[in-house]
């Protein structure tokens, strides 16, 4: 077996998050449609736009390392999104739907934050400064999205989920 190094790990993890981002892009409009709170709906719509830009940044990173942009099945995101689908089904038309959707979205953001955090650090070690800057830009967006979702939970969603009338 050939030796595998950090370059391989970086490339494989890039494929993982590329796959994940494209899955997320497909899932966000569904989540926006399902959301009852206008704030949450708007947050999902905004993040869909951002996700398109994040996919373009990943394509630039592939280009920097001289590889074609290709995804590799990411079981983690499949599982997180499947849980989100389950919530949409099981909590449809209930006051708790938005709280569940929001929690599912934050699980997605946290997965992305861990991946981009790792990739950025590896890019620095591999002396890929431009790649590190691109990955950091997305990392900041994901962190901001996570914070925005927390404030929507606190102001618009969680209290609503307590009420018995939808
Ligand atoms: Fe993303
Ligand atoms: Fe995200």
Can I get a quick summary?
The chain is an all-alpha fold. It has helices spanning 6-34, 38-64, 75-90, 97-125, 129-162. The mean pLDDT is 95.
| Major sheet characteristics | none
CATH fourth-tier homologous superfamily:
Ferritin, core subunit, four-helix bundle
Helix content: over 70%
Span between N and C termini?
A: 59 Å
Report the order of strands and helices. Answer: HHHHH
CATH architecture descriptor name: Up-down Bundle
Query: Which kinds of small molecule does this entry bind, naming each only once?
Result: fe (ii) ion
* Secondary-structure content class: mainly alpha
The low-confidence parts are none
| Average pLDDT metric | 95
Tell me the count of domains: 1
Number of strands: 0
The radius of gyration is 17 Å
**Fold-level CATH name:** Ferritin
In percent terms, what proportion of residues is strand? under 5%
Q: Counting H and I runs of at least 4 residues, what is the number of helices?
A: 5
| Backbone shape | elongated
Give the C-level CATH assignment: Mainly Alpha
Write a structural description.
The chain has 166 residues and is an all-alpha fold. Helices cover 81% and strands 0% of the residues. The chain has five helices and no strands. It has helices at 6-34, 38-64, 75-90, 97-125, 129-162. α3 (75-90) runs antiparallel to α4 (97-125). The protein binds fe (ii) ion (2 copies). One fe (ii) ion binds at residues 47, 108-109, 112, 142, 145.
